[in-house]
Design brief:
Length: 246
């Protein structure tokens, strides 16, 4: 996909080993992966206008090539319900980013402003991730997100590329698969929509082997027939000198 190649080229030219959030979402969109509505804004006024277009509540996150872990820098504000909340969040995020820069001894580039996203309705939390092993190449991992990943380590792996049958088998290996099938009065989840996301991620990796790590975390899977959404996405790429040697 040309869109992804262009974004990775820009990142490398800037000496980055990761893409910014709006770039990650642009790539997801190009591969047909469902994501919440989003926009970017470089001023508080613009953030208010874009938030109104998306519809409240929204999420604001810092957009800076100098900040990979946004939460650590106080660069994330969730569930903003009106214009005043957005304006206040924008100012706080900028102040927090400057403070973070001072603590790290760096001049943080704030010119890109913030990423704005629709505050997605909660679904069953899933994690879909990719890692690149020097020996075996890329592997995809899927599991139920939140506590299931952190405490139970309930995940399943396959090498990329893989088939639809592999994706379904992966999910069925999870201890928590019963939750996807529907348990205790809860209806079954939209496993078909989740499988589509996994296959789109596989295609993205095949097309762009310079991706070293990818995290769709969380992805929300809704009731059967109601789809799934990748709420947060992180994509890491090879260093410019490594990529150019291929």
């Amino acid at each position: 996909m040309k869109e992804a190649k262009k974004i990775f080229k820009t990142a490398r030219e800037e000496g980055r080993t990761f893409v910014l959030e709006h770039e990650a979402k642009d790539i997801m969109k190009a591969y047909g992966i469902p994501i919440p509505a989003y926009a970017t804004a470089s001023t508080a006024d613009e953030a208010v206008e874009k938030s109104k277009n998306i519809g409240f509540p929204v999420v604001l996150k810092i957009l800076s090539k100098d900040i990979l872990h946004k939460s650590d820098a106080g660069g994330v504000k969730l569930n903003l319900k009106d214009e005043d909340a957005v304006r206040k969040a924008f100012d706080e995020i900028m102040q927090n980013a400057k403070k973070y820069g001072k603590e790290k001894g760096i001049e943080v580039d704030l010119s890109r402003g913030v990423f704005i996203s629709d505050f997605a309705e909660m679904g069953t939390e899933i994690i879909v991730g990719v890692t690149k092993d020097p020996q075996f190449g890329h592997a995809i991992m899927a599991g139920l997100g939140g506590i299931f990943v952190e405490v139970l380590k309930d995940v399943s792996f396959r090498l990329i590329p893989f088939s639809e049958a592999d994706a379904r088998e992966m999910l069925s290996e999870l201890k928590a698969y019963k939750i996807l099938e529907g348990v205790r009065g809860e209806g079954p989840r939209d496993v078909d929509a989740l499988v589509k996301i996994m296959l789109a991620v596989s295609k993205m990796i095949v097309d762009n082997p310079e991706i070293t790590e990818l995290d769709c975390n969380p992805a929300f899977v809704y009731e059967k027939g109601k789809g799934a959404l990748v709420v947060d996405a992180r994509i890491l790429i090879e260093r410019p000198d490594v990529a150019s040697s291929h």
